[in-house]
Amino acid sequence: MTWTNNGLLKTLSAEDIDLVRPHLEPVALEQEASLFESYEPIKHVYFFESGLSSEVVVASKSIEVGCIGNDGCSGVPVLLGVDSSPHKAFMQAGGKALRIASPDLVGLMDDSRTLRELLLRYAHVFMIQIAATALADGRYGVEQRLARWLLMCQDRLGDELPLTHDFLAVMLGVRRPSVTDALHKLEGNLAIKAERALITVRDRRILEETAGDSYGIPEAEYRRLISHR
Questions:
Q1: Are 125 and 222 in contact (CB under 8 A)?
Q2: 72 closest CA partner among 52, 58, 100, 95
Q3: Whether pTM exceeds 0.90
């Protein structure tokens, strides 16, 4: 029986599982629960088993720069030896996680070269995701960017996405009417069904065609470095 649904933890060697597992605490995280705040100590790293977290740039007009589900963990700065970040992170969809105190994880990374290498590879993948977001924001329209985010959310949550128009506006850094227009276009193309606080993916192929090459590079890098090691 698989002891966890987290993509990172499932790749650990038996030795690293024995090292890490005693330090992990199961927790339930509600929607909008804070994982860490801007410039405040990151007390825990969360290895998600379900749900979806969002990392956001804190500014006069906030925008999401990355999302994490059961593919990875929150608190990437901790993996790099940094105890806080200008960003903040919270749950955009509630779920379950295994959390570990940040100092404990840092100590375990010092004890195990293989654990350190895996987590640093994941930090690299997450930075590629952030770079892909910057590229999408600078080169693509709202409809393409929305299709990209919906694909990323589907990868982590499945076909039913509990996302509001207001939250999608934060994700994309645009006004809510722009999100509504883009959703109507995708719904008209039969890619999705949009209801209040719920978007259902109906045809992933259409979303992929709409997103074009704004989607796929971080996902391929994850497969190359982590899931298919």
A1: yes
A2: 52
A3: yes
Place of tokens 């090691």: 229
Half-sphere exposure of residue 159: CA atoms within 13 angstroms, side-chain side: 9
Digit-by-digit pLDDT tens for the chain (229 residues) are 589 999 999 999 999 999 999 999 999 999 999 999 999 999 999 999 999 999 998 877 778 889 999 999 999 999 999 999 999 999 999 999 999 999 999 999 999 999 999 999 999 999 999 999 999 988 999 999 999 999 999 999 999 999 888 888 877 888 888 988 999 999 999 999 998 889 999 999 999 999 999 999 999 999 999 986 5
Return the number of other C-beta atoms located less than 10 Å from residue 35's C-beta.
24
Distance, in Å, from the CA atom of 152 to the CA atom of 154, rounded to the nearest integer, reads 5
